[in-house]
TrEMBL record:
Residues reported in the UniProt entry to bind GTP 1: 28-35, 75-79, 137-140
UniProt keyword list: GTP-binding, Nucleotide-binding, Repeat, Ribosome biogenesis
SUPFAM superfamilies xrefs: P-loop containing nucleoside triphosphate hydrolases (SSF52540)
Role this protein plays: GTPase that plays an essential role in the late steps of ribosome biogenesis.
Protein name (record): GTPase Der
Domain EngA-type G: 22-185, 197-370
Gene Ontology process terms (BP): ribosome biogenesis
Organism: Nocardiopsis composta
Length: 453
């Protein structure tokens, strides 16, 4: 694993970097007001469970923002286990926080002064390279401001006098927190394209794409291209279905005849990925009059890898007899189990059978694709999951999952903040359980982890 302090992002399949909102971890010994501060910062966004001493909080991470900067706020009080000495426990929490957070918000009770536990936290924080913002809490009025000055002695920088309960001084504190965020390329700034939702109709040659398109568009025009091997600019078509306008991507590519061309397969693959690139949801059309082909499965895999929502449409249903139907079910079970989450429609472009079921299936896929799970809810669910099924020991160590955030939608992408490597198996298990809890019908779901050394 990486030796520098840079974030190490592991992605199940691709090893791609994820843009995660900055993480701010609130550390400090019990009773200094961590939960009150968390409450104050998140406001009514997500209710914090009442902080009863001795009762473990069921949520640890929340969505927060200040001055337009969104971040994840982590309450390390939710990690309390209590089986060890106070100073040791708090120090270990600070260690985890330093491993996972971008900024550490260290809360000290100014009316009490520096305790052993505070000193233990300070030792941990000094050895990390994370920025630390020091909150001197319970400074309810000007008279107590002098108490805060003593905290300079901790040696972790300027103490910000605040009252988490009354809100005094928290604005300046949050300014300091936001100022400490790592520089971010504002990749997400590019606004999502407005307008009709974009559908790619894909599938190997001859499955009935152009027939279906003609049926959907309500007209019988087939464009035959006589110029072999030429690429024309993609042409999109707006089609009204179920009272909504949809944009079908690269309909020129669908209506053209590839199959006589040499290298048509390769060309179709390239054209499909170009269409997927611009689409939000893919309808993969398959021909039930023939056994599912490797090429069908490849197209499905292309969609999953592109991260688009997926609908499986089994065409030429009019040709199906009982016998074929039996084998088809077996083929689907065997070859498409990886995408068992995708809505399925059985249609006939020729007769029009069940073609109207495409729109609800597409809408289901897009809804899953767009889904965002609030961080608080995600983490209360995760806490139970981990308690019931902790990650397996690896190399003699038990990796701990401290919290999770949903880094992205379209498709949903979850990042688990951990103290060690999680096996692919365990991440797939988390994905399955996420699906059981939150749905995500019709969309790929990514689960990756973030480990820092
Ligand atoms: P594409 O290459 O995917 O665009 O496929 P086409 O739309 O050109 O269809 C290939 C062949 O399948 C044509 O002969 C169509 O008439 C036929 N076909 C398309 N859909 C259906 C269907 O639902 N039922 C039957 N029986 N034939 C169909």
């Amino acid at each position: 694993m990486s030796e520098n302090s840079a974030a190490f992002e592991a992605e199940a399949a691709e090893g791609e970097e994820v843009a995660v909102k900055p993480v701010v971890a609130v550390v400090g010994r019990p009773n200094v007001g961590k939960s009150s501060l968390v409450n104050r910062v998140i406001g009514r966004r997500e209710a914090v469970v009442e902080d009863v001493p001795g009762v473990t909080r069921d949520r640890v991470a929340y969505d927060a923002s200040w001055q337009g900067r969104a971040f994840t706020l982590v309450d390390t009080g939710g990690w309390e286990t209590g089986a060890e000495g106070l100073a040791a426990m708090v120090a270990r929490q600070a260690e985890y926080a330093a491993q996972t957070a971008d900024v550490i918000l260290f809360v000290v009770d100014a009316t009490v002064g520096i305790t052993d536990a505070d000193a233990a936290v300070t030792r941990v924080l000094r050895s990390t390279r994370r920025p630390v913002v020091l909150a001197a809490n319970k400074v309810d009025g000007e008279l107590q401001e002098a108490d805060a000055l003593v905290l300079w002695n901790l040696g972790v920088g300027e103490p910000y006098p605040i009252s988490a309960l009354h809100g005094r001084g928290t604005g300046d504190l949050l300014d300091a927190v936001v100022a400490a965020f790592p520089e971010q390329a504002d990749a997400r700034a590019a606004a999502e394209e407005e307008g009709p939702r974009r559908i790619a109709l894909v599938g190997r040659p001859n499955v009935g794409k152009s027939s279906l398109l003609n049926r959907l568009a309500g007209e019988d025009r087939v464009v035959v291209d006589s110029v072999a091997g030429t690429t024309r600019d993609a042409v999109d078509e707006l089609i009204d279905l179920g009272g909504i306008t949809w944009k079908f991507i690269d309909t020129a590519g669908i209506r053209r005849r590839f199959r006589q061309l040499q290298g048509a397969d390769y060309y179709a693959t390239v054209r499909t990925s170009a269409a997927l690139e611009r689409a939000e949801v893919a309808v993969v059309l398959m021909d039930v009059s023939e056994p599912l082909a490797e090429q069908d499965i490849r197209v499905v895999e292309q969609v999953v890898e592109s991260g688009r929502a997926l609908v499986l449409a089994f065409n030429k249903w009019d040709t199906l007899d009982e016998d074929r139907r039996y084998y088809l079910e077996k083929e689907i079970d065997r070859q498409l189990s990886r995408v068992s989450w995708a809505p399925r429609v059985n249609i006939s472009a020729k007769t029009g059978r069940h073609v109207e079921k495409l729109v609800p299936a597409i809408e289901t896929g897009l809804a899953g694709w767009d889904t965002r799970v609030p961080t608080g809810r995600l983490n209360s669910w995760l806490k139970e999951l981990i308690a019931a099924t902790p990650p397996p020991v690896r190399g003699g160590k038990q990796p701990k999952i401290l919290f999770a955030t949903q880094a992205d939608t379209r498709p949903p992408h979850f990042v688990l903040f951990t103290t060690g490597f999680l096996e692919d198996n365990y991440r797939r298990f988390v994905e399955r359980r996420l699906r059981e809890e939150f749905g995500f019908e019709g969309t790929p779901v990514k689960v990756s982890m973030r480990i820092r050394e």
